[in-house]
Design a protein that fits this description.
This protein has 357 residues and is of the alpha+beta class. It has one domain. The chain is 31% helix and 24% strand. It is built from eleven helices and 13 strands. A seven-stranded mixed sheet has the order 1-9-8-7-6-2-3. Strands 5-4-11-10 form a four-stranded antiparallel sheet, with no helix packed on it. A two-stranded antiparallel ribbon has the order 12-13. β12 and β13 form a beta hairpin.
């Protein structure tokens, strides 16, 4: 049962109200003439709600860079009386992520988990604690090649403050209506205090039930192996010749890592000004497909071959992250496959391994 019903125009008013207090980030259409269709969507900062396009199918990149920037200063330090004084750098800007699809919500939930394991990442949680998430459900696969249903990520039941479900246009046929589900107290207060929404009536409930049934029928499985059986499959496939055969095409460019919403590895560097005695510690994204990723002291690289790096990424996404965190490590968005310059495809790897087995 839906919590509320809201029209598109009223939703835009609400987003504009949020923009008075929060930084707004959401899907923005950009012309890309060389592509077909000649438009792509990106999560970007906007000043007004009408700059968003909530009818988008998918965004080229996930919104992870707004929670874990590609590069960020962790702390600055200055020399003081024979020692050093450090000043942590936190970003607590009030932010609202608008129009986040279920797969990316699952990815954020993974971040919430892994950055709280063993040593809590206060820099991540400074941003996360200041961020409101307004989700946008997918009525069907956003593009070819996705396998989000296989990974259980095409539906989100938590990880958002409010989730919107597009029910189609109203009886006049001129304005989209959304069913709304609350995920947090903050999401409930945001919508109810505005008085821009309405309680669902019997027709609304039937429309929501039909939406959910149509969505279930629209998604299909792409993998020949159940998600629960991937660990067993990969356990039998560690020495498969497929890794070397596929890696012959790999450029080790790291596009798969950098476009992935669940990759969270980073490298840390200290930068010091010897004259002033000041400096900073900063981190930037890193990726396991890059040749230097596994390079350690003594110039030893324990994954020198592209095949071992490819295998590592697949095992990590399908098995190891979930074993460590309890949250699925791949959300099936296929961004890695679309970004791959060599056209290496995750679904093909899993299915070819299943054929071998």
């Amino acid at each position: 049962m839906a919590d509320r019903i809201i029209r598109h125009s009223d939703l835009m008013k609400l987003v504009d109200e949020v923009a008075r207090k929060r930084r707004i980030i959401g899907p923005v259409a950009r012309s890309v003439p060389e592509c077909e269709p000649p438009v792509r969507y990106f999560y970007e900062d906007v000043e007004r709600a009408d700059q968003l396009d909530l009818s988008f199918r998918y965004c080229v990149y996930s919104p992870k860079r707004f929670l874990t920037p590609p590069s960020e200063t962790l702390f600055a330090f200055d020399q003081d009386d024979g020692g050093f004084v450090a000043a942590p750098q936190y970003d607590r800007r009030p932010t609202a992520l608008v129009g986040v699809h279920p797969c990316d919500i699952h990815a954020i939930r993974l971040y919430d988990r892994v950055f709280d394991l063993e040593h809590r990442d206060e820099h991540y949680f400074a941003r996360r604690g200041a961020t409101m998430i307004i989700g946008m459900d997918c009525p069907g696969p956003c593009t070819d090649g996705v396998f989000c249903k296989d990974m259980g990520a095409n539906v989100a039941e938590a990880g958002f403050d409010a989730m919107l479900y597009p029910l189609g246009t109203d009886t006049d046929g001129d304005e989209m209506r959304y069913a709304v589900m609350f995920g947090t107290k903050a999401g409930r207060e945001w919508l109810l205090y505005s008085r821009q929404s309405a309680a669902p009536n019997a027709d609304d409930e039937r429309a929501f039930e039909k939406y959910q049934a149509d969505k279930e029928a629209a998604f299909s499985f792409a993998l020949r192996t159940r998600r629960e059986d991937l660990a067993e499959l990969l356990g039998r496939s560690y020495d498969s010749l497929l890794w070397d055969a596929t890696a012959r095409r790999c450029y080790s460019c790291g596009s798969c890592n950098l476009s992935c919403p669940t990759c969270y590895c980073f490298d840390i560097t200290d930068e010091t000004d010897l004259a002033s005695g000041s400096g900073r510690r900063w981190r930037e994204w890193d990726g396991c497909h890059l040749p230097e990723f596994a390079l350690v002291a003594g110039d030893h690289n324990f994954r020198p071959k592209a095949a071992s790096r490819l295998r590592h990424r697949i095992y990590r996404k399908a098995v190891w992250i979930q074993e460590r965190s309890g949250v699925v490590g791949c959300v099936g968005c296929a961004r890695c496959d679309r970004a791959c310059t060599a056209k290496i495809n995750s679904v093909e790897i899993y299915n070819q391994l299943a054929e071998e087995a």
